[in-house]
Automatic annotation (TrEMBL):
Keyword annotations of the record: Oxidoreductase
Protein name in UniProt: Aldo/keto reductase
InterPro entries membership: AKR_Detox_Biosynth, NAD(P)_OxRdtase_dom_sf, NADP_OxRdtase_dom
Species, as recorded: Rhizobium anhuiense
Domain NADP-dependent oxidoreductase positions: 22-328
């Protein structure tokens, strides 16, 4: 039976705390929410199962959970609050910027004014049952650079007031990532990164500024778990079936052919050393930079155990990393 590993891969946070270099992403456990008829969640969930999975992650040493105020129209934060509450040994990161209606489960817009930010913080504190937010992240990926100054002025003020401990930006733009790196309390960038998207420019900014690289999409939205075949489609309430510009790994709810070919090219290399495909994808991220902190999603205890099991095997060796680069160059 899987147990808590004695010497996991670790990372030191902004507050000096050392934790395993693996978090759990909590988008999926929020359940369904929508923009009109377009699904933005990952389908139906069982809250009791989600809470059991969160508790299992904690048993296995996981100390970092990432959510957002809009996941499941607030339901993800509610579930985390029920499961964890105000435990001071657990770091919870959340995000603001997208408004939702908890009753209708509908997205209602994107906002970044000071009044909205402050309301969002109070709502997140209540849902999460926290005295203070450990890490608050700006969720609007492509927000205008100059206009972001006022947003981060507000975050600095909230930190001074003791409402938040640290803050960051969820963005895939290196320029945006670098913009606020000199501010006290600005500690992290959450961005897409996985075997198929190594984002060297973003990693250069993060390493150069001493930030933490929180990796969303570390399993390419489930593609790197290996459980999808060409004829397997996602459910009707699953965001991976939506016609969204940024949905590159899946088309019409099925694995995109070009990514299926890339997966085939690296499958054997990722599963070296007795790793599952999922564990190899996480190990690739750890080998890519000492600043990475992947946050794979989960809904079940089994998924948590597989993710956490990657810690025992550590980063991929250099020769395997080189082999993956060469294999992808040939596709």
């Amino acid at each position: 039976m899987l147990t808590k590993t004695a010497s996991p891969t670790t990372i030191t946070l902004w507050n000096g705390r050392k934790i395993p270099r693996l978090g759990m992403g909590c988008w999926a456990i929020g359940g369904p929410f929508f923009a009109g008829d377009t699904p933005l969640g990952w389908g139906d969930v069982d809250d009791d199962e989600s809470i059991e999975a969160i508790h299992r992650a904690i048993e296995l040493g996981i100390r970092f959970f990432d959510t957002a105020s809009n996941y499941g129209a607030g339901h993800s934060e509610d579930v985390l609050g029920r499961a964890i509450g105000n435990r001071d040994d657990i770091v919870i990161a959340t995000k603001f910027g997208f408004a939702t209606d908890p009753e209708t489960k509908q997205a209602t817009g994107a906002f970044a004014d000071e009044a909205f930010i402050r309301r969002s913080v109070e709502t997140s504190l209540r849902r999460l049952k926290r005295d203070r937010l450990d890490l608050l992240q700006f969720h609007i990926n492509d927000f205008p650079l100059e206009q972001s100054d006022a947003v981060f002025d507000t975050l600095e003020a909230l930190r001074a007031e003791g409402k938040i401990d640290a803050f960051g930006w969820s963005t895939d733009s290196p320029d945006r990532a670098a913009r606020h790196a000199g501010r006290r309390g600005y500690v992290s960038i959450q961005h897409t990164m996985n075997v198929f998207e190594p984002v060297p420019e973003m990693i250069a900014v993060i390493e150069g500024k001493g930030l933490i690289s929180i990796n969303r999409g570390p399993l390419a939205m489930g593609l790197l778990t290996g459980k999808f075949t060409a004829d397997k489609a996602v459910g009707a309430k699953d965001v991976r079936g939506a016609a969204l510009d940024w949905m590159v790994y899946f088309k019409d709810g099925r694995i995109a052919p070009e990514f299926a070919a890339r997966l085939d090219a690296v499958r054997d290399l990722l599963t070296s050393g007795g790793r599952t495909l999922t564990q190899g994808a996480l190990a690739w991220l750890w080998a890519r930079s000492p600043r990475t902190l992947p946050i794979p999603g989960f809904r079940t205890v089994a998924q948590v155990e597989e993710n956490a099991g990657a810690l025992e095997k550590g980063p991929l060796p250099a020769d395997v990393m080189a082999g993956i680069d060469a294999a992808l160059d040939r596709v």
